[in-house]
Design a protein that fits this description.
about 220 residues, mainly alpha, 13 helices, globular
Length: about 220
Amino acid sequence: MLTINEIKNAYESLKNKENQMTMESYMKNNFPFLGIKKSETAPVMKELFKIGLPNTKNETIELVNACFMQAEREYHYIGMVILNKKEMLFDTTDLSYLQQLLTTHSWWDSIDTIAPNIVGSIVLRDRHVGESVMREWNHSENFWLQRASLLHQLKYKDKMNEVILTEFILNIKDEQEFFIRKAIGWVLREYSKTNAVFVTDFVEEHQLSPLSEREALKWLARQ
């Protein structure tokens, strides 16, 4: 089975100082980087995964945690890829674990990977329990969890729970945080591709921030 040492051995040989500075600057210097571009990590991941991914939930958690314990952001990325590949092992009882990941090394790239791709899939399999936890996140004082609560339905399309979407947006629409206002617009824009009438009516009926409204209507404006 793949280990963190095998991942580190593969990644360390690809370190690039020039890319490192550019990538760290782009991410507002929130994390150190090895300087490995996505185009370079993709084939390396493919080879690493041939060694064998974890078979159980506990093994997956152990490897993902080991990735997140590393300082450099590239290790967090591969941890999220592994988690995504094994998300069927997880259920709503694991949302507390995912909350821990979301609040570890938090930034938009990790929230936007874990929330719609992993949390969203889990909630969709058990909406009664999952939506209750999402409501807790929506009322959290941690704006990253608030963003995750909005984005968990990002890919739902015709499975969107419009009642939940409305409730969650109205609860935090007046927050000043950029990442919240952007997420509100993003989830509405994505849903406008499925239900344009709902999104148009929602924007007309509720006073959103200019950023949220602009983002929400962006796709419709191009039609």
